[in-house]
Amino acid sequence: MTMLNVEGLTKTYHGETPAISNITFNLNKGECLALVGESGSGKSTLARCLLRIEAIDSGKIGFNGSAIEKLTERQLKPFRKKMQVVFQNPSAALNPKLKIKDSLIDPYAQYKREVTLSHFSNGSKTSYIKQLLEAVELPTSLADRYPHELSGGQRQRVTIARAISIEPELIILDEPTASLDVISQDAILTLLTDLRKNLNLSYLFISHDLAAVNRISQRIMVMKKGEIVDQFDQKDLFAKDRHPYTQELVSIF
């Protein structure tokens, strides 16, 4: 079942060459679709456009059958709770002045009137936060700490806990392991895979790291200079009929 349907998406800044051009793809419910490409290829611009953080020039964005590309901020609110994002830098994503427990409760506080939880119980704030921390395999003792008291891997787990806290349907993961060491990267990829299966999530996994992409995704899209040049099932990554640019990326994999 298609969750996200994107047709002809184009975004240009100040009359320059389009940052993204004629982007078309589908993302199915429950799958991890990876978007890979070198830095500056337009991956993060696409993410911001899908989230409606950036206005698009043309194209369509369908979410669960509803067109959202022209909705006002007020009209978008019911959809925002269903689409969350995890960025590359967890330190920038967390308010340094807030304890972890307060950062975790914030999304639910914003959307509690529109959200009905099925995986987590919000019977009490303490219980709810405990469940979120346990879901991302963090000790509950971290709830009263501040972001600077956590390691990079722990901070990224907190941002993931925030993202799943209101039980969205889609999470856009924009280079979520890029700032982590190899051991932490491996642990985060395992966690994300488990959460997708256990919470019935869908991911758009954006990365320049083919090893991570190959491990976590079911399908892969390759972006070059703002355009999707290749789309295929994960099992076909090493196929001989891949686009020349894909083959170039694979050669340094």
TrEMBL record:
Q: Could you tell me one molecular function GO term of this UniProt entry?
A: ATP binding
Q: Which PROSITE patterns match?
A: ABC_TRANSPORTER_1, ABC_TRANSPORTER_2
Presence of keyword Nucleotide-binding = yes
Q: Which Pfam families match?
A: ABC_tran
Per UniProt, the keywords (alphabetical) are: ATP-binding, Nucleotide-binding, Transport
Q: Which InterPro entries would you find in this protein's record?
A: AAA+_ATPase (IPR003593), ABC_transp_ATP-bind (IPR050319), ABC_transporter-like_ATP-bd (IPR003439), ABC_transporter-like_CS (IPR017871), P-loop_NTPase (IPR027417)
Question: Which terms does the UniProt entry file under GO BP?
Answer: transmembrane transport
Residue intervals of the ABC transporter domain: 4-250
Q: What is this protein called?
A: ABC transporter ATP-binding protein
